[in-house]
Amino acid sequence: MARLILLLVWTAAMEAGTSASIQYSTVPKAEIERRLGLFEDTNYKRELKLRAMFEEAGCVGDKLDEQRVKHAQAPNVFCTLAGGTETVILVGGHFDFVDRGRGVVDNWSGCSLLPSLMESLKSSPRRHTFVFAGFTDEEKGMVGSRFYVHELGKEGRQRITAMINLDSLGLASTKVELDRADKKLANALAVIAADLKLPLNAVNVHNVGKSDSDSFQDSKVPTINIHSVTPETWPILHSPRDQMAAIRLDDYYDTYLLIRAFLAYLDATLD
């Protein structure tokens, strides 16, 4: 596990006091933990639960949508937070799981943060349109995300200025995968982590497992994959140990705090 090396190209003015210059609200820790505990025992019921959580967070009407996916029982589900432009920042996490465990880490931990992140950003006007996506059947070969990217077409893919993938959070402090990450996004995440004094390390796990970020990276969309896996905790995934007890709740909440500020920063700084 390597300490994250900051390859920063931002000016000193942008680096100093960053969190004070961007706008977001904060969901209480108890609510983040409650939503984490709402995992279900089938993928279909997880999609329904994610929809209900989006609605609870204020994503209703035509802001909330789903996409039927060929050969998948459960659809993709989307919450859209409209901005001043059609340029999209997409935040995604898969809700399906391997039933050898409860799938809390992989990946209810990622998808259950999506409603809270939307809730954190909706309090202020946004330059970009945010799409929060719960993807189906990642465990079967990124089926949901690959279908979504294909259906977007070239023009739709070009509107995505950043894709932030959340997969397997809470096993430890926040980790970022650098081997395929967009460098500008990685630098921005490091700026926010330093400004908020929140831990961030680089751990590359792509050689032992893929995630929905690959569907976007393969189509040249700027992407970053945020996780919490280390060589020591990797065996928890896809095993009976993937339970609520595996989550370190303080680390999990720190990851939420980091991501909600990171998204607001991207909204303010990306072209």
Looking at this protein, list some descriptive labels.
271 residues, alpha/beta, Aminopeptidase
What is the CATH architecture term? 3-Layer(aba) Sandwich
Strand content: 15-25%
What's the overall geometry? globular
Main sheet: strands, sense, barrel: 9 strands, mixed
Q: What's the β-strand tally?
A: 9
* Sheet with the most strands: spatial strand order: 1-8-7-9-6-4-5-3-2
Number of helices: 9
Within CATH, the superfamily carries the name Zn peptidases
Please name the CATH topology.
Answer: Aminopeptidase
Q: N- to C-terminal separation? A: 32 Å
Secondary structure class reads alpha/beta
Low-confidence stretches: 1-16
Text of the CATH class: Alpha Beta
Order of helices and strands: EHHHEEEHHEHEEHEHEH
Question: What report would you give on this structure?
Answer:
By secondary structure, the protein is α/β, with parallel strands linked by helices. It has one domain: Zn peptidases (Aminopeptidase), CATH 3.40.630.10. The protein contains nine helices and nine strands. The protein has helices spanning 12-15, 29-36, 43-56, 104-111, 114-121, 143-158, 183-196, 213-217, 249-269, and strands at 2-3, 64-67, 76-81, 88-94, 129-135, 160-166, 175-177, 201-202, 223-227. Strands 1-8-7-9-6-4-5-3-2 form a nine-stranded mixed sheet, sandwiched between helices. Strand 7, helix 7 (183-196) and strand 8 form a beta-alpha-beta unit. Helix 3 (43-56) runs parallel beside helix 5 (114-121). The two termini are 32 Å apart.
